[in-house]
Amino acid sequence: MIDAKLVYDLRNRTGAGIVDCKNALEEAGGDMEKAIEVLKKKGAIKAAKKMSERQASEGVIATYIHHNGKLAAMLELACETDFVARNEEFKALANDLALQVAAMDPQYVSPETIPAEVIEKKKQEFLAELAEDKKPEEIKLKIIEGKLNKWYTDVCLTKQFFIKNEEQTIEQLINEKIAKIGEKIVPTRFTRMQMASGTGGA
Domain 55-114+156-202 in CATH: superfamily? Predict the structure, then answer.
């Protein structure tokens, strides 16, 4: 079992995603330096660096409409250049993400886009659930952190598991494309509509 602090230390050092850091540490047997090498080989650090340093001002808007016409999603996927925006693989990714939004109904793009007051309210809910628990405070904090991470996988697009590959998160899928295409790629916003009387379902 990899300690959560190790995962966050590795994330702070590399900028790679939480799931990537956890997997790298598991692969490296908990060794921080070896885990950094694992991330380098997988392109996760390269992807994170591109994500933080570059501006994504081009892109496409993709739509998904369910066959019954009662469920639809629209998603904006940004990249750096018009050249990539016209790339078939990039457009296929945008379509997959629109399908993901329709099927899984995320509420936010990523944890970073959730308003601070919403996260704080959720923390207080989890804290209330543990009110009668006699565990030490530091254990409670770890439990709350785990509950928050689980909540993120429900409400954040980037933290959800990809419906076409349930062993991969959307964040991992995007980082994979960044490493391959060589540009910053980021979903910036989305909307989902469903008829009130429709059964929907992607």
Answer: Elongation factor Ts, dimerisation domain (3.30.479.20)
